[in-house]
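Protein modeling request. Please complete all fields; requests missing the sequence field cannot be processed.
Requester role: graduate student
Desired output: 3D structure, token encoding
Chains: 1
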Amino acid sequence: MKGYKSLFGLLLAVTITLLLGCENNQDTLYKASVEYSIENGVIVLDEPERTAEQQSMIEFRAEPLESVRVGFVGLGMRGPGAVERFTYIEGTAIKALCDKYAERAEACQAYLERAGMPRAEIYSGDDGYKALCEREDIDLVYICTPWQLHVEVAEYAMNHGKHVAIEVPSANTVEECWRLVDAAERNRVHCTILENCCYDHFELTTLNMANKGLFGEIIHAEGAYIHNLEPYWEHYADNWRLEYNQAHNGDIYATHGIGPNCQALNIHRGDRLDYLVAMSTKSINGSKLTKELMGEEECKQGDQINTLIRTVNGCTIDMQHNVMTPRPYSRMYQLVGTEGYANKYPVAGYTFKLDQLRCVDENTMPDIEDLNHHTFAPTEVVKEMTAKYKHPVQLQLVNGLPLQEYSLTVGGHGGMDYIMDYRLVYCLRNGLPLDMDVYDAAEWSSMGELTRISIENGSKPVKVPDFTRGDWDKVDGLTFYFAE
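Delivered output (484 residues):
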């Protein structure tokens, strides 16, 4: 019997060791860019403290600029359009153009010539951006490089006293997000994310409706980036985008969906993202694509990524990412409130509580088969409401026209790119807080790695870092500022 007890004890010890080993392997399955621990089943990432040389950037105002002198870095797919749009914005001077390939930068001189503006200085090569950032006559560095270079360029620019505007996502890892926050807080310069979807006409009008209380209290939002990129993969320089998808799982392009939703929920301005849970499908189309174009046997990016987020104040956000299957384009923008509902894709419309469940006789039970009671408000009602509740940004006058109307003459994703650039220049020239700050850039961009951490740790909940370091409730509601 004694021998059996000894054997049982040995087997028990080995079993416990194996179980602990399995748990440890699960907990460290994905090595994140920052250290993390698992507390009560929730993954919690380490958060660096603010140093003595750093200050909060909440509602930060820089000195007004008479003219915004700008240098563009990255002139492949998105950069040239930005250069052209800036030629339509009063109070700007395009001083420098930079791309890895000199001919791309040189090609953008045509926009300046067409606008009667002086030629810009050309920079090229892997380190050309450094000389651009070191110039004394540049106030803003506008970054449209491949994602992998965003933080490298932005950090260098901020350390040289420049404001930065970064294409989406502004960073790829949580560690990079903290680097953006630290550089902005240390150098006291603006760092904004170029999230054009926050300036879409539907989103702006809907945001204003939400601010006016038409939807009651918003309790849920949905967003996505669903865009079959099959026609575009081979047009990204050096195949950088497909390479990134092949190597990284998670919602790596979340900002189009989450940005407008965070604004409607006043994230960093009375509420903040608390934790998320993410999961992915297997990779079928992605694996086939990367094998054909890259010779790689594995694609880490699942064809479909699904994420649920909960805020501190008890609201939820549903996010999706899919660039691999032939689904119709959708950013799945939805707001669910206690008094109403807004939806943009696939059919745009609004629903308000007072229009619902009307009966001929108030004592008669509604016909549950009649779904007409549960549809969008009538077209004439929506037309009247959207005209009445246009956002103040849409009504800003530019060359005698409302900004929304003028933006359509310039273009850029239906005008929202121009509104984004106009607002950036307007706030810099008037010394106002930007519509989107460094904490927005960090939190929206952090979704890429946070969702990957959740997925690769068995869809465990992941705590969203507080990039404001406790300042998320210092402001009550999002404000778009205007000069007196």
